[in-house]
Amino acid sequence: MQKDKRLVVTFLVVIFGVFLCIPSKFVLVKMGIMSMNMDNFSEYKGNIEKNIVDKLNNIVGKIENNIENKVINYFPLYSNLNTLYQRVNFVSNKLLFKDVPIKTNSDGEYIFYDKVNEFYYLTNKYSDEELDVRLEKQVKFFNDLSNKGINVNIYIPTRYEFTKLKENNLSGYIDEFVNKLDSKINTRVMNVTSVDEYKKYFYKTDHHWTIYGALDGYQDICDLLGIQKLNDLNALEHKEKKYYGSLAKTALNDSINDYISDVDIKLDYDVYVNGKEADKLFKPREIRLDRNYKYYDYYVQYFNGQYGNVVYDYHDDNKENLLIVGDSYSWQIDYLIASSFNKTHVINLRYDEYKNKGFNLSKYVSDNNISKVLFLYDGGSSIFDQYNYDFEGRVK
Predict the structure, then answer these.
(1) CA neighbours within 13 Å on the CB side: how many for 238?
(2) Which residue range forms the structural domain that includes residue 384?
């Protein structure tokens, strides 16, 4: 009995200690004694790894995020307590900052919440010096491919950190990147002209573009590749389930939500996944109504593009073959782009056989009679390789 009492007391001390941290931190920040999370968020540049301590802190942070995601899914009591903690923290930060700092995601990017326009956005995590180095590596990578005679095409969606709608944006890097590319490389950049347009083109609670942004990108890509675009592409939203995307999940905040959006069209093609005919689970494009976890990832479930090699076959030998090298930004529109080609090969370096080894792009292009190659990643990946796919080291 005595042992049980000590255990209960210890548990209560931990719980109340955690919650006392929030008002204590709030008071100290308000008095100017400390800054929130020891950072100045008006000039936040991310987790810059200047020394071994910074590197260890970033590693520990990633481990903490991974553990937290696992625990949230399997222990409801922890989820409820953590949600309450995050909400109190969120409210205190709203009183302190114009844009509310939330926490870092598993990639070390800091998440902010724009409380005026009600959406989340990510910040760049690298120093100016490292951005310069990374940009030069990416330019060299693409120029080397072009010099091998490959028809390289790059489309750059611009998340909030790359627009001119906020201070300290990265839009200048886009111009530098494009200007340094070989003149034979074709590029297009998404143009977002207002915050309202941005909120339409991108999910408010997630880092992906909505079908409205994806369709705008699709039209740009059709012009980029010189192909005929499909007409009468009607967008729709699935309102049977609220969607709280990756940024809302990290914040554990449900004050705003999205709905999964898609285009209402059926096309006739065969599709092969990793060399085998796809089963019915490939791109189900249906919302799982049996999922009760609030922060369930409906984007991944709905578009289901987590495969290393996908081939769309429209059976038209009079048309060219295309290779798309991309990430989850391609999932919504790859089959639409493919409708203008005979066969379209989609390679995702994060999955299956390409996850831990190189990809001989030049040989793949030659073996499959491919005329054009499209790189379709979020802007930071194409320009900076911000998620460390190691294009230059793995793609030849």
Answers:
(1) 18
(2) 128-394
